[in-house]
Design a protein that fits this description.
The structure is a single chain. This protein has a five-stranded parallel sheet, sandwiched between helices. The protein has a two-stranded antiparallel sheet with strand order 6-7. About 40% of the residues lie in helices and about 20% in strands. The protein has a single domain, classed as Flavodoxin domain (Rossmann fold). The protein is globular, with a radius of gyration of 16 Å. α3 crosses α4. It starts with a strand and ends with a helix. The chain contains seven helices and seven strands; from the N terminus they run βαβααβαβαβαββα. The protein is an alpha/beta fold and about 180 residues long. InterPro entries: Flavoprotein-like_sf, FMN_Rdtase-like_dom, NAD(P)H-dep_reductase.
Length: about 180
Amino acid sequence: MKILTFGASNAKSSINKALARFTATLVPGAEIEVLDLNDYDLPIYSEDLEKEVGRPPAAQAFFEKIGAADGVIVSFAEHNGSYTAAYKNLFDWASRIDQKVFQDKPTVYLSTSPGPGGAASVLASAKGSAQFFGVDLKAAVSVPNFYDVFDAETGRIDEPSALADLTAAAETLALQEAA
């Protein structure tokens, strides 16, 4: 099973990228591809620009990566209660290719932050709109206090409650493959 995973942030040391990568390792037998949003440099979306330049190759490449996966794990970073500008812009461009950006792929949504909120606001927003963008949402998990539960040396979360929630979410993708 090919799992595509990414943190919806362009921060080089994104904790959401670390969370997404770790969670993908919990999918039994998964072949994991980790995307970096920095590889999808795009101008700020506007209808006028789209009419002028068409659809940029980076947006098409992102859309095709999702299409080639058996499942997707994305972890949303929260900037001022919403998506990061980098993710929102990439998503906007990809949605012009097809509104069903996630192409009905089984998907796990995650979020985390250094504080107790766990980026729950952006996760709630993503969950609320998932049905409109071809997301077959299997699970959604917010992990608060990331630095308290993540071991940077091992790249793992061993805190029992968070690990149980992430394992259960990851296993929904493996169950999808078995069905």
